[in-house]
């Protein structure tokens, strides 16, 4: 079947009954962060693109259709890294990385040499002979990423590759992955719950909400103008939606007071403090008004106002600190 949407990158529409109905396009070389709350369909999207979950629609990658006619999972030129599994337990790190190359017909000697080079690149060359159970979580994840990248896939699917790693290990791996993704010329999709991943690793962000695409755009734009509560919370912005009009303001622009604030050029809300948490040099206050809002105050102000869960407060923000926009038509 002719497919005029076919591009060198990724062009796909995938539908999984009751779980997902998403269209995604990306240029070759793009890293797309896929974000959204639990159950939004992020893993289902990756699995549907890989052919691991039966889906209606079409998928074309690298100028080739994977759906008409259907291409078997093993014949799709893709690499994936999932948070929990990934490595074959009975194979050494080297054999794990060489496996994908050999299954694509590369000779043993060549596959081993390429695999060794990839392990070196990820700083785990000296662990080539080890089995996965003899690797730390961070080392195993490096091997898994090396294995996914080694065959130069057209599509790289990374499902929360840093989940479960401790912060230092995750940070180091994030930096290494960024370096490799910069020179990778396929399309990479990265599922993440971390705003930093989305902002530092991705060229574009795709926001999923209840199985549909709620927003796509450059990370900076999505972070500045989130249209879902999930992303608003992730980037720490207050966002109020009225139909297709959105108003946002930073927690640092919010004034907290015990008495009702004066002045007409202010938006104001009344509610009870739900919780307090340190946020940089400030104290972040979560307040249940007619919606949940966040305000950043100085520790001195928090003490002076006696802020504690249950305390009734007023929040106000100057009209000039509020940005208003309409969602672009999809
Ligand atoms: N094997 C399955 N069979 C039926 N429904 C499923 C299956 N796996 C997931 N779902 C449902 O599909 C929806 C999307 O799940 P999915 O795992 O894709 O979400 P997610 O965005 O990856 O979530 P999380 O961040 O929690 O991993 C959820 O409602 C989930 O309950």
TrEMBL record:
Annotated ranges, domain ABC transporter: 1-235
GO terms (BP aspect): molybdate ion transport
Pfam families named among the record's database cross-references: ABC_tran, TOBE
Annotated InterPro entries: AAA+_ATPase, ABC_SmlMolc_Importer, ABC_transporter-like_ATP-bd, ABC_transporter-like_CS, Mo/tungstate-bd_C_term_dom, Mop_domain, P-loop_NTPase, Transp-assoc_OB_typ1
Gene3D superfamilies, per the entry: 2.40.50.100, P-loop containing nucleotide triphosphate hydrolases
Superkingdom of the organism of origin: Bacteria
Any one GO MF annotation of this record: ATP hydrolysis activity
SMART domains: AAA (SM00382)
Keyword annotations from UniProtKB, A to Z: ATP-binding, Molybdenum, Nucleotide-binding, Transport
Residue ranges occupied by any Mop domain in the UniProt entry: 262-326
PANTHER family, alphabetized: SPERMIDINE/PUTRESCINE IMPORT ATP-BINDING PROTEIN POTA, SPERMIDINE_PUTRESCINE IMPORT ATP-BINDING PROTEIN POTA
Name of the molecule in the record: Molybdate transport system ATP-binding protein
